[in-house]
Design brief:
four-stranded antiparallel sheet; Rossmann fold; about 240 residues; about 20% strand; alpha/beta
Length: about 240
C-alpha cells in the first residue's frame, strides 16, 4: 500500500461529552468491538477488575476521570481508526480544544437521563465553528432515561440541528434490550455480560419477526412500531 492509500484509509475521531456521560467507557467499547481488546476495562474498576485503556495515569485510575487526551489506534474493516478520548472536565478543557483542531469527525456522547449539559454544548459550538461532522451517541439507555423522541427534540431545539436517528432503542432502563438499526432494518437484541467486559452476544431479527413480539411486552412493541413509523414519515433523511 502506497503513502497516499495509507493516508486515505485513516480516520481520526474524537469523543466529547460533559463529565460522567460515559465517554471513556464508550472508547473502551469501541476498542473491544473494533478488535483491539479482548476484555474491556471499567472506569471505576475495583482491585480485581481491569482499568480502562485510555485512563493510563494513576490519577485517572484513582478518580475515574480523564485528565489528558489519549490516542488509541486500531484497524476496522478497511480503515485505520485513530480514536481520541478527551477530558470532559472544564479544568482540563484546553487539551480538548487542541485535539479538536486535528480530527475528521466527532462522537458527541450524551447521558440519556440528563440530556444536553453545559460542557457538551460548549464543545459542540467549537465543533460547529470548525465545521466538524458530529455523530451523537445517546448513552446509558439501560438506566432510567428520557424518552428517545424527547431527546431528539432537545437536540433539534437546543443545538439547532437537523437530526436523523440511525438507531432506535428497544426499551428503556431495566427494560432496555438493544437497538433497531434503521439502515439495515434489523433489531439487535443484546445479552448482558459481566461488567460489560466482553462482547455481548447479539440476536438479529426483523422488527416484524414474531420472536421480537415475544421478547417485548405488547405495549412496548406497539410503542416501538409507532415511533419507527413516525421517524420514517416525518423524520429527517440521512443524506451524508
Amino acid at each position: 500500500m502506497n503513502f497516499e492509500q495509507e493516508i486515505a484509509r485513516r480516520r481520526t475521531i474524537a469523543i466529547i461529552s460533559h463529565p460522567d456521560a460515559g465517554k471513556t467507557t464508550l472508547t473502551e467499547k469501541l476498542l473491544l468491538y473494533g478488535g483491539a481488546l479482548q476484555l474491556a476495562g471499567s472506569v471505576t474498576a475495583r482491585k480485581n477488575q481491569r482499568s480502562t485503556t485510555s485512563d493510563w495515569m494513576e490519577l485517572e485510575k484513582q478518580r475515574g476521570i480523564s485528565v489528558t487526551s489519549t490516542v488509541l489506534q486500531f484497524d476496522y474493516r478497511d480503515c485505520c481508526v485513530n480514536l481520541l478520548d478527551t477530558p470532559g472536565h472544564k479544568d482540563f478543557s484546553e487539551d480538548t480544544y487542541r485535539v479538536l483542531m486535528a480530527v475528521d469527525s466527532v462522537v458527541m456522547v450524551i447521558d440519556a437521563a440528563k440530556g444536553i449539559e453545559s460542557q457538551t454544548r460548549k464543545l459542540f459550538e467549537i465543533c460547529r465553528m470548525r465545521g466538524i461532522p458530529i455523530f451523537t451517541f445517546m448513552n446509558k439507555l439501560d438506566r432510567p432515561s428520557r424518552n428517545a423522541l424527547t431527546l431528539i427534540d432537545e437536540l433539534e431545539q437546543t443545538l439547532q440541528l437537523r437530526v436523523c436517528a440511525m438507531n432506535w432503542p428497544l426499551g428503556n432502563g431495566s427494560d432496555f434490550q438493544g437497538v433497531y438499526d434503521r439502515q439495515a432494518k434489523q433489531a439487535h437484541f443484546f445479552e448482558r455480560t459481566a461488567h460489560g467486559a466482553y462482547r455481548a452476544p447479539v440476536a438479529l431479527h426483523s422488527v416484524t419477526d414474531p420472536q421480537v413480539r415475544d421478547r417485548m411486552p405488547a405495549e412496548m412493541y406497539q410503542e416501538l412500531i409507532g415511533e419507527l413509523d413516525m421517524l420514517d414519515t416525518a423524520g429527517e433523511v440521512f443524506d451524508f
